[in-house]
Design goal:
alpha+beta, elongated, disordered N terminus
């Protein structure tokens, strides 16, 4: 260990010296660990003592790993070694292909028009079937003596006026557009008062109220989607966008690969029996 410390310290003091195989920190048979290898893994911000400790631990681990690898033929069977090599080759190929595909995707536009989304939705209506009941809602919490006024605004659809009044009085509300949620998940939370949770919320355009401590909790069911039916467009829109973009990417990659294939054919680089 002291030998490692001495070697490392000496090499670092020669920082102006160009790195080459002679500037080794540790060796095991034909394996060489160089100063640049060490510099590449040292975390930034370490003190001198911590850096020295890190380096020595890294060197010791590197040596032990190389010793273990040298015993592979004695520990593993030929079949196991071949399987490992095949897996490594497969992983390397997959990783390389993934990086190449990322290069192909540079400049790829992820913009999708509303027409594209709607066209896809209408073309494949049976693809998007609801597995659970869902609802879209608006909710607010106001003083009990103002509840009827706010419910009237809800019924009339005066949402801009309603939202302005709620903001002005600093009342709680949630008017998130297309605020879809699975009904069972909503009922399992404590967002809704117990009285409202007992109601049939799968009733479109209905307004439910629960009053407690001079405050009224009001929820309006805006839209519903029943299990087994086609999912509403506004609910499934984000999913459709992902599908459309994925298809676009796959088509682009297919075109790129086909061009490379055609080029290889023209150059007579492909041979088949």
């Amino acid at each position: 260990m002291r030998k490692f410390i001495f070697i490392f310290t000496l090499l670092f003091t020669l920082s102006c010296q160009q790195d080459n195989p002679k500037n080794w920190v540790a060796k095991y048979k034909d394996n060489i660990l160089t100063r640049s290898d060490i510099q590449a893994v040292i975390p930034k911000g370490l003190s001198e003592d911590d850096s020295l400790q890190f380096v020595n631990q890294h060197i010791e681990k590197w040596v032990k790993d190389k010793i273990l690898m040298s015993e592979v033929d004695d520990i593993l069977t030929e079949e196991e070694i071949n399987r490992i090599e095949a897996q490594v080759a497969s992983y390397r190929e997959d990783l390389t292909e993934s990086i190449i595909e990322d290069k192909f995707m540079l400049g790829f536009s992820d913009e999708v028009t509303e027409k594209e989304l709607m066209d896809y939705y209408e073309q494949f209506p049976d693809t998007f079937v609801l597995k659970e009941n869902i609802i879209s809602y608006r909710l607010l919490e106001v003083p009990q003596d103002s509840a009827n006024k706010f419910k009237r605004l809800l019924r009339n659809g005066d949402l801009e006026d309603l939202e302005l009044r709620l903001k002005t009085n600093n009342y709680y509300y949630d008017f998130t557009e297309n605020n879809w949620v699975e009904l069972d998940k909503l009922l399992a939370t404590d967002i809704l008062p117990e009285k409202i949770r007992k109601q049939n919320l799968m009733d479109e355009n209905q307004i439910f109220t629960s009053t407690d401590n001079n405050k009224s909790f009001i929820i309006q069911i805006d839209e519903i989607g029943k299990k087994g039916n086609a999912a509403p467009y506004t609910f499934i829109k984000p999913t459709i966008k992902s599908v459309v973009l994925n298809k676009r990417k796959l088509n682009l990659l297919s075109e790129k690969k086909h061009k490379l294939y055609e080029k290889a054919l023209e150059n007579h680089e492909i041979k088949k029996k």
